[in-house]
Specification:
The N and C termini lie far apart (about 50 Å). The protein has about 575 residues and is α/β, with parallel strands linked by helices. Helices cover about 35% and strands about 20% of the residues. The strands form 5 sheets. It has an 8-stranded mixed β-barrel. A 5-stranded parallel β-sheet has the order 20-19-18-21-22, sandwiched between helices. It is globular. It folds into 4 domains: about 140 residues, Glucose Oxidase, domain 1 (3-Layer(bba) Sandwich), CATH 3.50.30.10; about 170 residues, Aconitase, domain 3; about 100 residues, no CATH class; about 130 residues, Aconitase, domain 3, CATH 3.30.499. Helix 5 packs across helix 9, helix 6 runs parallel beside helix 7 and helix 8 packs across helix 11. Strand 3, helix 1 and strand 4 form a beta-alpha-beta unit.
Length: about 575
């Protein structure tokens, strides 16, 4: 480390420990075990590493907004990293650390370095962080103090901060202002609706936070929907879910309902009648929902972390930063996609997954896809997979998404997704036995159109007796499928439709315990599934999933459009 290098303090605190450094971002939800502090993302270079007590260095986080809840739980149980060091903007884990300090008196230092300083420090084996310096390998790097807030608050905002509307909303506004300061926002913006992701029982910390806010009398200020939760709320006891898990998971959902949130329990809120319009400023959490809202609907919302989603819903106010601002919605990376002939539905999640790897920290413009004429469900799959591998809150698809024309900045970075790259990624996501015991559909929650396509593909055939076929979907879609006969057709084929849960929150016994290998058409679950379920995961098209459902096998081969 050389003298001109320095670190910027985002959240204060002291720490010392071994440095664990990576150049690849990591999602704490689905990537780190709350019970051990170990990296469980099998696709990440740090897989198997224990982060407890380490100074974790990575460019930023990625993936799920629920990472803030996982980090909060790790802090409260003593399993967290000793400090976090980033070299890019980061909100999700920062918010988890902020909640730990603000509400529980447990600070965890968060620093941001320049790329040069980050590269130098990452080569050290250990480091010691104080309020004024980072010491490593006999050298000292000064730490600049946290940014002083220069927020231009309204009279109502100031009154809330002074406690005029009660403790809960006062605490919420304090958290919002702290996040606004670290984001560099100068003022707050009104939002029209919220979507809560923190209702997933990622850890006991999620319940502690929600019940504490509810006990303080919190009530949402704007219409607010709720993400998928961790149990089938009405049926978990009958399903044999242990009370030790089912009770706190249901209590968590109930706490948000008490605070005025709608019990929609879906990770696809853009399928609801309340979906936002183009240009509407909203406050959504849940990575796939945020990316779809920005990219496909043209609404405006940063990827708000868990806990901040509730704070914004309570106040109706959010930091004016990120993709609320038009200049931050432009593409800083152009990705040219080599489009094979006659692609099927598996193409879109695969491209989203690869686009996230190509643009892990910036909004991309995807080119070369317009002639494939993606459907809304194709774009849904694309956005969900992109959010798994990128921290960016949106993408553009030339000729397809509403803000794509002229989206790229001058001098945008150029990347390409080739057929060879697709084949390599397909193989990486699709290794495993040909025999499968579970078909997993609905990550994110299936649309009515997807349910109809599945019913037509099965065409009345019965599932193999050794294969479970489970579709997760929101209540609105399940009702529509019941009304038009789709649900009856699926059930006649042996398909089980599960509400409230999504695949990233399903656990045994709803997840069939005898499963050794599963297949999914979701790029998102293909990535997270191995770590979350501890099973082998295959990835394929809907036709592949139907073949597995009926025969119990699906050949391990490239799709026709890649051969």
């Amino acid at each position: 480390m050389s003298a001109p290098m320095h670190a910027s303090s985002i959240l204060g605190g002291t720490a010392d420990g071994p440095i664990v450094a990576t150049v690849e971002p990591l999602s704490f939800w689905g990537g780190v075990s709350p019970s051990t502090g170990t990296v469980i993302d099998v696709h990440h270079p740090l897989h198997g590493a224990c982060l407890t007590g380490a100074i974790l260095m990575m460019p930023s986080s990625r993936g799920s907004c629920t990472g803030s809840g996982v980090l909060l739980d790790l802090i409260l149980t003593g399993r967290a990293p000793a400090a976090l060091i980033f070299c890019e903007a980061e909100d999700v884990l920062t918010l988890g650390a902020l909640i730990a300090a603000e509400m529980f008196g447990k600070p965890l230092p968060v620093l941001r370095l320049t790329p040069e300083s980050f590269a130098a420090l990452s080569r050290a084996k250990t480091a010691r962080i104080t309020a004024t310096s980072v010491e490593a390998d006999g050298a000292t790097m000064p730490v600049m103090p946290p940014r002083i807030s220069t927020l231009d608050l309204s009279d109502t905002d100031r009154a809330i901060l002074e406690g005029s509307q009660g403790l809960a909303i006062q605490q919420a506004m304090r958290i919002i202002c702290a996040m606004a300061a670290q984001q560099g926002a100068n003022r707050l913006i009104d939002v029209t609706q919220g979507h809560i992701d923190g209702c997933i029982y990622a850890s006991p910390a999620n319940l502690v936070f929600a019940e504490r806010m509810a006990e303080m009398g919190a009530q949402v200020h704007v219409p607010t929907t709720m993400n998928a939760i961790s149990v089938d709320h009405a049926n978990w006891r009958a399903q044999g879910v242990p009370a030790s898990f089912g009770d706190p998971a249901a209590r968590l959902a109930d706490a948000y309902v008490r605070m005025g949130c709608r019990p929609t329990f879906t990770c696809s809120p853009y399928l609801l009648a309340s979906a936002p319009q183009a240009g509407e400023a909203i406050a959504w959490a849940e990575s796939n929902a945020v990316i779809f809202a920005n990219s496909v609907l043209g609404a405006r919302t940063p990827k708000h972390p868990d806990f901040l989603d509730l704070c914004i819903a309570l106040t109706g106010r959010a930091p004016l930063s990120g993709v609320y601002l038009a200049e931050n919605r432009r593409a800083r990376c152009i990705i040219d996609v080599e489009l094979p002939d006659n692609v099927d539905d598996a193409f879109w999640p695969l491209i989203g997954y690869l686009a996230g790897h190509a643009a892990p920290d910036r909004i991309p413009l995807l080119r070369g896809l317009v002639s494939a004429k993606p459907s809304i469900d194709d774009l849904k799959a694309l956005c969900a997979a992109f959010g798994t591998t990128s921290a960016a809150p949106m993408l553009h698809v030339e000729g397809v998404t509403p803000e794509a024309e002229g989206a790229a900045i001058d001098g945008a970075e150029r990347k390409a997704i080739t057929r060879a790259g697709m084949a390599e990624a397909w193989t990486r996501l699709n290794s495993g036995p040909e025999t499968v015991e579970l078909v997993a559909i609905g990550s994110p929650h299936a649309s009515l159109g997807e349910c109809r396509v599945l019913a037509a593909a099965l065409a009345g055939r019965k599932r193999h007796p050794d294969v479970a076929v489970i579709v997760t979907a929101g209540h609105q879609v399940i009702t529509e499928a019941r009304d038009d006969g789709t649900l009856a057709s699926l059930e006649q084929s042996g398909v089980r439709i599960v509400p409230d849960l999504c695949w990233c929150s399903i656990s045994e016994p709803v997840f069939p315990a005898r499963t050794r290998t599963l297949i999914t058409n979701s790029g998102k679950y293909a990535h997270y599934g191995p770590g979350l379920s501890n099973r082998v995961v295959r990835f394929g098209s809907l036709a592949d999933c139907v073949e597995a459902a009926v025969t119990g096998r699906v050949p391990a081969r490239l799709p026709r459009w890649l051969r």
